[in-house]
Amino acid sequence: MGKRKRPQIDVLTHDEDLQNDALTETIIHTDLTATDHGLSRSGQYYTVPASPPPSNPANSQGGSIAWNTSADCPSLLGDWDPSTELPGDFMDTAYIDTQWTNGDFDKPKRARTAGDNPLLLWIPEIDRYLGELLRLEGRGSRQLNGKCPDCRVARQAYRCDDCTDTRLFCKGCIVQRHSALPFHRPKEWIDGRFKKVSLRDLGLRIQLGHPIGESCTNPAPSFGNGFVVIDIDAIHEISLDFCDCQTSHPPYVQLLRNRLFPATTFEPRTAATFRVLEFFQLLSLMSKVSAFEYYQTVHRRTDNIGVNPPPDRYKTFIRMVREWRHLKMLKRAGRGHDPSGVTGTTEGELTLLCPACPHPGKNLPENWKECPPEDKWRHALFLGIDANFRLKRLNVSNNARDPSLNHGYAYFVHDGPFNEFLNEYNKKIPDDTSTCNNHDAIKSASIRGGKGTAASGVGAVVCSRHDMKLPVSLGDLQKGERYVNMDYFFCSSVHFDSPDVLVVSYDIACQWSRNLFQRISSYPSRLQINQPPENITFAVPKFHLPAHREHCQITYSLNFLPRVGRTDGEAPERGWAALNPVASSTKEMGPGSRRDTLDDMLGDYNWRKIISLFTSILRKAKEAVPLREEHVAGFKAFSAALPPDTVMEWTHAVRKWELDLKMPNLFKSAVHTVSGNAVKLELAREEALASTSKEIPIIHEDITPSLLISQGLELEDQQRRLQIDMKNLGKDATDLQRANIVEDSNRLRRRIDAWIEVQHLYVPSVATLRAHADREGGGAPVEPINIQLMLPSHVVGEVDMSQFLLQYEWRLRFAYMHDVLRELRRHLILRTHMYRFKDRYGHGQSHHTRSLGVISTVQAKINMDLLRYRENRLALCALAGPLAKTGWERELRPLEDKDIRALNATELNETSRTGEGTRTIPWIWRVEYAGDSGSGIIHEALKIEWCKARARAHRWQEECIILQEETARIITFFKWEARRWRQMAEKTISTIYDEGNTHTEGRRAYALQQTDNHDTMRLNCERAWADLGKWFAMGEGDANRAGFSVVKSMDGGGMLCTM
User: Fold this and answer.
1) HEC states along 736-750?
2) Could you tell me the pTM of the whole model?
C-alpha cells in the first residue's frame, strides 16, 4: 500500500451559496496527463453539495477501536479529505510532506467559508496596505505638541524600528529605553525624513560585569574602544566597557554571561549574540543555507546601499559558528555534567542514538541474551551501507591547520586512526574482480574524485529501518568506494554497542561480503566484530536489486530472505538526499570544518527522525496490518488450490533454505534454459568438429557459417535500433544529435557491406536476387535501415541454399527469442518497481515529470522487446515448414498486448487487488527452453510463485512483529534517557570558578529540562500507541495471537499463516 494520492482540486465558494441552507460547491477537477509532447492539462467544473458536518467517532456503535485523534496524535484509521487541501499554487511540497508526516491532514471535515481563500480577500485591500507602509515612513500621529512622551520636555526626534512602540522620543529617553536593548536600530527625524543613527552615536555605552544601571568603579574599555557585535538582523558597532574590578572575570567570560559569544579569548573585539548563532544553526540545518549567504544577508540589512558598510567579520563569524555547533553537541550529550569534562569524551558519545534500534543495556530486556535462538532475530540490528560521491572535498587546507573539534566523538570516524589504518592496509587489501554485473560501485573503486580533490566522497553505515546515522560510521573516500574504507566504517559502527544479530544491506553486498570475514581477520583487534558469520545476513537494497544478475536477485533479496520484515534497505539514499544540498559549500571547507559541520547536520537529521517516530510507526502499522491480512489470505487460497503433497514438499524445502541459506534456493528455477550465447558456443564447437570431416564447408577463413548467421541477426537488430533513434530524433534536434545519427548510419552501412560480401560466398544465388532488387529500385541509394539482409528465413523458397544454414538460423533465433522473453520479464519487473518508487517518493511536479521520463525509457525497451520477439517469430514460422519443425508454437506463442504484464504486480489503474490464489499467470512467465514438454515448466513456475506468495505473507507478518518490538524499545529508550538525565541532575560537580553554586544550579536545571523532554516524548508515544496492540491483533495472520513465532514456524514447530 503506497502513500495515498493527493488529488489537485480547487474549490470556489460563491457568496450567494453561503446564504442558502443547502450549500453547494463548484469544484474544478484538474487532470495532468503525460504525453509524448510533455504534460497536458484539462479541467472540468462540477457543482456538488457541500460537505456534511463531521460525525463524532465516539458516538459510533459497534466494536471498532476508539483511536486517539487529538491534535498531537493523528488518527490511525483516518481517510484523506480532498476538500481540506489548499490550491496547489500556494503549497510548498516540503510543507505538504511535513503536514503529512505530522498527521495534520487527518482532520475532520468542516463547512467551507470565504476565509478559505484569503488571497482573494486580500487583493481588494492592496492599496490600503500600501498606504499603511508608506505612513510608517513618516512620524505618524505626534503627541504633546512635539514633546517627548517620557520626559515631556525635550523635542521628539528619535524612533526605533525594532520596537513595537512607534512614538518618537528625545535623545536621552531613547538611550535610557534601550539600556537593556543595545542592539536596536533607532532613526532620527531630520529635514522631513528619518535617517539612520546608532545607539553608540547617541551616547550608549554597555557595561559588562554589573547589573544594568549599576556603575563600575574600574571600567576597562574594549580593545581600541570599539566593539563589533553580529546580531540576527544587523552588524552593530557599539561602545563596550569590561569590568576590571578585583573580583572580575576574564573579558570573554563577561561576554558569555551576557549571551555574547566572543570571537577570541584574548582581548576580544568581536562577538556574536547567542540568538544569531542559534538562528543560523537552525536555518542552515533546515534550508542548508551557507554561512556566506547568511552573513551577506545580515550585511545588506545593515547597509543595503553600500555607503557605510559595517566591518567585515565573515571569517570570524564562521569560526564562532563552528565553535557554537561543537559546544551545543557537548551540552546535549551531557559532557558538562561529567567530572572528566570534554577530554573524557569517548568515541561516538555525542551521537543521537536511534530509540527504535536495539541497544544492549538501554532498551533491551535484561535477559535478551538468554532468549531462544529462534527468537534472536527480534533483536536484530538492520544496517545499510552506501557511499555518496557528491559530498567530495577539494584539496584545501589540511588536518594540521584545520583540525576537527570532534575527534571521533560523533558520526565521523577519528581521522588519526583512520588514516593510519589506510596507510597500512591500502595496498594489502586488493579490489576484488566482480562476479556480478558491472556495478558503478565496483568500477568507482579505482576512480579518484578528480583533479584537486582530497576526498572523492563519503561512505556511511546507517540504520536501514529508521534512516538514522550510527556512531563513528562515516568517513572520507580517497579513491572511490574501496573495500578497505567501507570495511573500516562497518567494523567501527558494529563495534559500537550492537546486538548479536545483524542484517546488512549494501548495493554490492554480493561482492563485498564474499571475503569480508577474511579481510576482517587481518585487521587490528579494535576492528574485530563479535558477531559470528552465521548471525549476519547480507542483502541488496530493493531498488538496486534489478541491476544484479539473476543469482543475486534471488539470493540477496529482502523480499525472500527470512526474518527481515518489509525492510527495503534504501535508507542511505534518503539520507543523502537531505545532505546533498550542502555539498557545494562543504567541498570548499578544510577537513576539520567539514567534518564538524556534517556531524552537526547529521545530529539534527537524527533528531528530526526521533521526534517523528510516533507518527512514522503509526503510519507503518496502518499499512502493515491490512497487507498482512491480504497476503496471508492470498497465500492460503493459493495453497488450497494446490495438491497437499506438493505444498508439503515445497514447505519443507523452503524451510531448509530459510534456516541455512546455503541449501538449494527454491526461488531459483531448476528448468534448463539455453541462451543465445550458449547456442553460439555450441554451433562453434560443432563446426570445429565438422570442419575436419568436410561435412560443413568453411569458405571464408574468418567467418564460419554460424558466425555469418549470427552477425546477420545482430545487423538486423541494429537496423531496428537505428530506425527507432531516427524516429525519436525530432525536427528540433541539434546538429550534434543529427551528426551522431549520420555517423551511426555510415558505420552500419560499412558493416552491412562487409557482411554481404561474405554472404555472397556462402549463398551466391542471393547476389543475383539482390541485383534484381536493385534494378527494380532504379539504382537509387538505400538507407542502411532499409537494406534487405536476405537471411535464409527471408529468401527461403526463392533461392537454393544449404540446409545447415536454415538449421543454424532456426537454432539461433529460437534461443534469441528466449533471451528476448527474459529481457522482457526483467523490464516488466523494473517498470513495476519504477511505478511503485514514483508513487512513494515522487512528490511534486518536477519529481513526477522526472519519474515519467525514466518510466518512458523502460517502456521503450519493453516496446523493443515486443518488436524483436514478433519479428523473430515470423522468421521461425518461415523456417518451420522447410525444416519440418512442429510443436514449438505451444512454447513460443504469439505475443499479444494483453500478455505484456508483470507476474506479481497489479495494473497501475486497478482499484482493487486480486487475490494471490486466483490470479492468472501470463504465459510469458511460464515458458523456458525445455524441449516440447510444458508440464515441468508450469510446475516450476507455480513453485516459484508459491514461494514468493509465502515470502510476502511471512514478510508482512514479520513486519508486524518487528513494529511491536520497536514500539517497546522506543518507550524503554525514552525511559532510560530520562533516568540518565535525572541521575545527572542529582550529581554535584565542584569547580574552582563555580561561585555561589550557579554552575551547579544551571547543570541541574538543564538536566531536569532534558528529563522532562524525554518523559514528554515517552508519554506522547504511549498515548498515540495505546490501541496498537488491538490493531496488530486484528485480522488474519497475527503470529503472536496464534501462539508461535516466525522462526519457530520455519523449523517444523508450526507454520505462519497456519500453512
Assistant:
1) HHHHHHHHHHHHHHH
2) 0.71
